[in-house]
Design brief:
heterodimer; A: Serine Threonine Protein Phosphatase 5, Tetratricopeptide repeat; 9 helices; 2 strands; 69% helix; B: alpha/beta; Rossmann fold; Histidine-containing Protein, Chain: A; four-stranded parallel sheet; four-stranded antiparallel sheet; 10 helices; 17% strand; elongated
Chain lengths: 213, 260
């Protein structure tokens, strides 16, 4: 497989791999969420991504925008928790930004992910350090952009993005949550890694697994 | 009438809250739709369901959306991007149960989206003034004191300052029903005044509370007026006399709560 761009089939493989990873890590996500949330993040993400894989298998999309829009809407209607509108918005905005193409280069995929993140911010009003998915995705995309400016292809950009996402995820541990259910805990939310930042890191892990294989 | 949408993680919670609120109004309630739960029996919220509920109750006069918490808020904001209606849609931060009850009563009386939303947001006022002496967290006590005074229902002109109005009518009458001005009589007053050309305020003369607007369920309830307290009705406007007469009659009949 080519790694300089990502094809429609690879986007589908990426989503499928993300489903596999959240399934694999379901109990870990649940464990993180039971510490500071309502212990449903693992189950919600698995249910949502199972619905996504089923949907895009049943109604194959012919362009990136249609595919990503379908993913977003499926998450909105199947997740139930706050991850539904947040991940749903991420994919819907990615789709709008990507447009009706069948292939994305590193810059285009980075721009689509950036648009998705901006949607998440608009939806959830999260800022850096609020102990949310933003804290994994934002540094990942910053690293992505730097790599692309240096001429990186999708595989290389995804690799540095994953490293940055994981670093951002681990850095949520000492933070006091300021958004969502965890924020009700105040200071007691410190000392736990954020489950949303963790599932977002898996999104980059899935991308690396897909474009590097 | 405006439409009302109730968004909850739990269909049972939403239905029960709506049922409770409907106890306060007659047989032709305002359009209400519930958007609760996600997927197959999952506790959660779904923006697509919320958008469909908004479209269902929109009839040109606006839609007020009540939410429980968390993802209900995110799903409702997202729903405003999915809905097809061009009605004004307002997501209210009013308390779920108290706000919904206040809103249904006022919406049923034909009030505008702005009026209903304002009343719903002030809906903690009655409970806060009832519980103001219960200690609790310092913040809560401070908050209880402030909204009770700031409740829009309390904005009505003070009886004295309106005395220059030639249409002003004032009557004092004792409360005779055993339970005083609780939710049901308060609801009856709001509904009796709906569409009447009069601004009417109610003061609990005995307790020295008020005046509050006769159009505000929560305002009337916040008086906490008990049996034998003297109420003062002050009205201005073209139908001031009629409004006061109606309330005097209703009060004298104990709002239908006297043992026959």
């Amino acid at each position: 497989m080519s790694t300089s761009t990502i094809s429609l089939d690879q986007l589908i493989a990426w989503l499928s791999r993300f489903r596999d990873l959240v399934t694999e890590k379901q109990s870990y996500l649940t464990e993180l969420d039971s510490a500071i949330g309502d212990a449903d993040h693992g189950a919600n993400m698995v249910r949502g991504m199972n619905a996504v894989v089923e949907k895009i298998g049943a109604e194959p999309a012919t362009a990136a925008d249609a595919l990503l829009k379908s993913v977003g809407m499926t998450l909105v209607t199947s997740v139930g928790g706050a991850s539904g509108p947040l991940y749903g918005t991420l994919f819907l905005r990615m789709g709008v930004n990507a447009g009706p193409v069948t292939e994305l280069d590193a810059a285009a995929l980075g721009a689509a992910l950036r648009a998705g993140l901006e949607g998440v911010v608009a939806r959830g009003k999260a800022e850096a350090g609020d102990k949310t998915m933003f804290d994994a995705i934002a540094p990942a995309l910053d690293a992505w952009d730097v790599a692309v400016a240096d001429g990186a292809d999708v595989a290389a950009a995804a690799s540095v993005a994953l490293t940055a996402a994981d670093k951002g995820r681990l850095a949520t541990e000492p933070l006091v949550a300021r958004k969502g259910r965890a924020s009700y805990l105040g200071e007691r939310s410190a000392g736990h890694i954020d489950p949303g930042a963790t599932s977002s890191t898996l999104l980059f892990q899935a991308l690396v697994d897909t474009v590097s294989s | 009438m405006i439409g009302i949408v109730v968004v909850s993680h739990s269909p049972a919670l939403a239905q029960a809250a709506v049922d409770l609120a409907l106890e306060m109004v007659g047989e032709t309630p305002p359009p209400i739709a519930i958007a609760a739960g996600a997927g197959d029996g999952i506790i959660g919220t779904d923006a697509v369901k919320v958008a469909a509920a908004i479209d269902e109750v929109a009839s040109g006069e606006g839609v007020l959306v009540f939410m429980d918490l968390g993802s209900a808020v995110l799903s409702s904001t997202m729903a405003t991007e999915f809905m097809t209606t061009t009605d004004e849609v307002r997501l209210t931060d009013a308390p779920f149960v108290e706000g919904l009850i206040a809103a249904i009563v006022l919406a049923n009386a034909g009030a505008s989206l702005d009026e209903v939303d304002r009343e719903a947001r002030a809906a903690m006022g009655a409970k806060q003034s009832q519980l103001a002496d219960q200690g609790g967290a310092p913040d809560a006590v401070a908050a209880a004191a402030a909204p009770a005074a700031e409740t829009p229902a309390m904005d009505a002109p003070a009886a004295d300052s309106a005395s220059a109005d030639p249409t002003e009518v004032t009557v004092e009458v004792p409360l005779v029903n055993p339970d005083g001005l609780h939710a049901r009589p308060a609801s009856l007053i709001v509904q009796a005044l709906a569409g009447v050309d009069a601004k009417l305020t109610i003061t609990d003369v005995t307790a020295g509370k008020g005046p509050v607007s006769g159009n505000s369920l929560i305002g009337i309830m916040s008086l906490g007026a008990a049996k034998d307290h003297v109420l003062k009705f002050t009205a201005t406007g073209g139908s001031a006399q009629e409004a006061v007469d109606t309330l005097v009659t209703m009060t004298g009949e104990g709002f239908g709560e006297l043992a026959s």
